[in-house]
Amino acid sequence: MKDKMERGAVVVEATLCLTAFVFAIVMVLTIVNIAYAQAKIGTALDYAAKEMSQYSYLYFKLGIDEWDANISEGTDDSEEMAQNTIKGIVEVTDSLSDAESAMNECDIEGLVADIENGANSVEGLVDMYSEAITGDPKGFAMGMGQLAVSELKEEAKVVLGQVLAKSLMKKNLKAYVKDEPENFLHRMHVVRESDTDSYMSALSFDGSYLMPAGSNSIQLVCSYEIQVLQLLNVDFKFKFTQCAKTSAWGRGVSEITPKSIWDTLPNMERGKYIVGQEKQNYTCTSSRNGFDAYDESSNQFVSIFSMDNITNTKYQDADEVYGRLKDEFGSMYNGVQSLPEDIRVHKDGQSVTVQSDPGTRTYKLVIVIPDDGDKTLINQAIDRLKQDYPNVSIDCEVKGGYGNPKVEAESDDSGNGGDA
Predict the structure, then answer these.
(1) Does residue 255 sit in the same domain as residue 316?
(2) Is residue 15 a part of any domain in this protein?
(3) Residue 177 burial (CB < 10 Å; 0-12/13-18/19+)?
């Protein structure tokens, strides 16, 4: 009898140990899969940014940047000259490469028209046009040329940047030579919205931009979710956002164009532009009650603003920086406190009502500074702000972007920097 009981105990122990062992192995493989997916997607994003930087050589070599600026300033005959130049781009770039360009199949004029008419969402345009581009220098030059004569060229540059990023990434989203991006993303358990969608459509490029406001800055942002293998009936996903940033290769690496959005736009216009770009990272947005965006999943309200702490001496003082953060947060906090449970936001191009439990609301500040801006004083101000509101959940993100302001050798630092 005792032997039988002992044999039964051994079976139970073996079963428990095997289960724990299998569980541990699966967890390790899941972590490896996530790390591998991040590495491959990050590498593909880096290569896409590198190719776009190289292709931008034609933007400067063919003089597109010059007549782009002339059109913006209203120079006589500049638009006619631009249109004539676009006609010659195909012939010029064909002499640079023997490869057949699939960009001819992509209607750049149609892309610009769709953007101007608001006929499709940004995601729809990116999916539609990225399928027709293989990533060709001629396509890049043609696209930038067409956008230069568009009334909405800045908005169109954002879309073209996303289109090119998605197209160029396909070259490197594979584990072996004959692998396909769809199969690769499927094996990596990237999450699609529905079974009928492609896996490439699950990659979001919101937040990407392409040489805005005359700058030479290129930034590609890719967001996606990975499904963790379901164990014990637990459905869990990880969301990742990866970024690749570079400068357009134009007049040589040592001679980077000094223009950036920080000194090419007036303070108010610059602030509106940056907020508009950053709001694309959120599904729900607003322009009232002190907040710019809303995250339904976390019941979090977001305020976005910019600070030029390189040329504006005002933001090189700890008290001034703290005062700005406190004013921005106070405006959002007081505005949100007055909101009922039903709040109005913009979602998918429409004004809708969403539910927000007043008892679980959290807050976030997104502070945008120049690429090389110092974050030290801002982080100190964040700590002071959180001490002022010990019972409030405050998340803060300090991010560099949109280039750097041109710093003159002798400047009076009049305080008219990018404090939009």
Answers:
(1) no
(2) no
(3) exposed
> Which residues in 101-124 are b (16+ Cβ under 10 Å) and which e?
bbbeebebeebbebbeeeebebee
Look up the domain containing 95 and give its range.
Answer: 20-259
Both 215 and 299 in a single domain?
Answer: no
Last residue of a domain, one of 259, 290, 314: 259
The reply to whether 230 and 104 lie within a common domain is: yes
Asked if 69 and 208 sit in the same domain, the reply is yes
| Number of folded domains that form the chain | 2
Q: Rounded to whole angstroms, how far apart are CA atoms 233 and 135?
A: 42
Task: Yes or no: say if 411 and 316 are a contact pair by the CB < 8 Å rule.
Answer: no
CA–CA gap between residue 262 and residue 215 (Å, rounded): 9
One pLDDT digit (tens) per residue for the chain, 420 residues: 555 555 566 667 777 777 777 777 777 777 888 888 899 999 999 988 888 787 776 666 655 555 455 544 444 444 454 444 444 444 444 433 333 333 344 455 565 566 555 545 555 655 555 555 444 555 555 555 555 545 445 566 677 777 778 878 887 888 888 888 899 999 988 999 888 888 988 898 887 877 766 667 788 889 999 988 766 666 778 889 999 988 777 644 333 344 577 877 777 878 888 998 889 889 899 988 999 999 999 999 999 999 999 988 899 999 999 999 999 999 999 999 999 999 999 998 788 999 999 999 999 999 999 988 899 999 999 999 999 999 999 999 999 888 788 765 433 333 333 454
> Which residue reads 């609301």 in tokens?
361
Question: Would residue 4 count as lying in a domain?
Answer: no
245 and 286 part of one domain: no
- Please give the Cα distance from 307 to 415 (Å, whole number): 11
CB 208 within 8 A of CB 155: no
